[in-house]
Amino acid sequence: MARQQLTSLRHYLNQQVLGQSEFIEQLLIALLCGGHLLVESPPGLAKTRAIKALSHIIDGNFQRIQFTPDLLPSDVTGTDIFRMQTNDFAFQRGPIFHNLLLADEINRAPAKVQSALLEAMAENQVTVGQRTYKLPRLFMVMATQNPLEQEGTYPLPEAQLDRFLFKIELDYPDREQELAILELNDAEAQHRTITKPTPLTQDQLFQLRDALMQVHLAPALKQYIVDLIIATRHSERYDSSLANWIEYGASPRATIALARSARAYAFLQDRDFVTPDDIQKLAHSVLRHRVLLSYQAIAQGVTPDMVIQRLLEHVSVA
C-alpha cells in the first residue's frame, strides 16, 4: 500500500515540477534514505516549489530559512527566552524544528550558522547553551546554492558537504518543458489545481525505509562500490593524470551513501535488486561534492564530474 502511494506521490511531483524528473527522483531517494540534499542551480528552476510540493503530500511540516550574512545561529536553532512570570528561562524553538527544511542560499551564512546546521544534520539534534534538544525523527534539509553570484558567500566546510547525500546540479528546461511550465502557470492563475494524492504518513515512510534493506545488493556490487570510493583516494593506480587532479578522496560516508541510494533507486524502479547501472547513475550526485580537486585541476578547467566519469571508465565490476 505504501509503495503504491509512493508511486502516486512521484507522479504528482512530476506534474507540479515540470522538466525536472531526475531532480524529483533524487528528492524521493533522499527522502527514502533519510539523507540531505545540496542543490545548485540558477534562480527560478523550482527548487523551492519542489520541496514545498513534497511537504504537501507527506505528513510533516515545512519551513524555509533565507540564509544571509547577518544570520545568527539562534535564528536557526532558537534561543532561551526569559519569562518574567516564572522568573526563569524557557527555550523558544527555532525554524530548524520542522520535518522538511529549505536552507535557501546556504553559502551566504557565516561559519557559526553552518556549525549549528552541521550538528543538526549529523546528530539530529541542536545544542543551545548547556542543553541539547532532539529534532523530529523525520528531518530533511534541502540546501540551495546559486552558482552565478559568488560575492558575499562562504564556501561550505568539507565536513558539512560530506553530510549531504547528494549534490544535484540543475540546468534550464528545454523548449517543450518551458512551454509546459507556462501552461501550468496559466492553469494555476485560473485556480485549476492538480488533485493531491493522499499524504504519506510518517509511519508509512519509515516502513518504506526499512523495506529498502530488502533490496538485494550482491557482494560483487558491494565490492564495486568500495573499489570506486577507494579509487578516489588512490587514483594513481588507475590513471596518472587523476592522481594530479584529486587532492582528497571521498570518505566512508560516500560508500554508505552510494549503496543506500542505489537500493532506493532500484526500489523506485520496482526492482528488488541493484544493478551496476544504478550505482553508475548515482555516482556523480554522491561524489561530486566529496572529491576535492587540486589547484592544478581547477587551473586546467577540470570538474568533479569529469574526474568521476574517468573513474567510472577505469573501475570495473568484479
Automatic annotation (TrEMBL):
Keyword annotations of the record: ATP-binding, Nucleotide-binding
Cross-referenced Pfam families: AAA_3, AAA_lid_2
Organism: Celerinatantimonas diazotrophica
Domain ChlI/MoxR AAA lid: 246-310
Keyword Transmembrane: no
GO molecular function, one term: ATP hydrolysis activity
Similarity annotation: Belongs to the MoxR family.
Domain ATPase AAA-3: start-end pairs: 36-166
Name recorded for this polypeptide: MoxR-like ATPase
Coiled-coil parts of chain: none
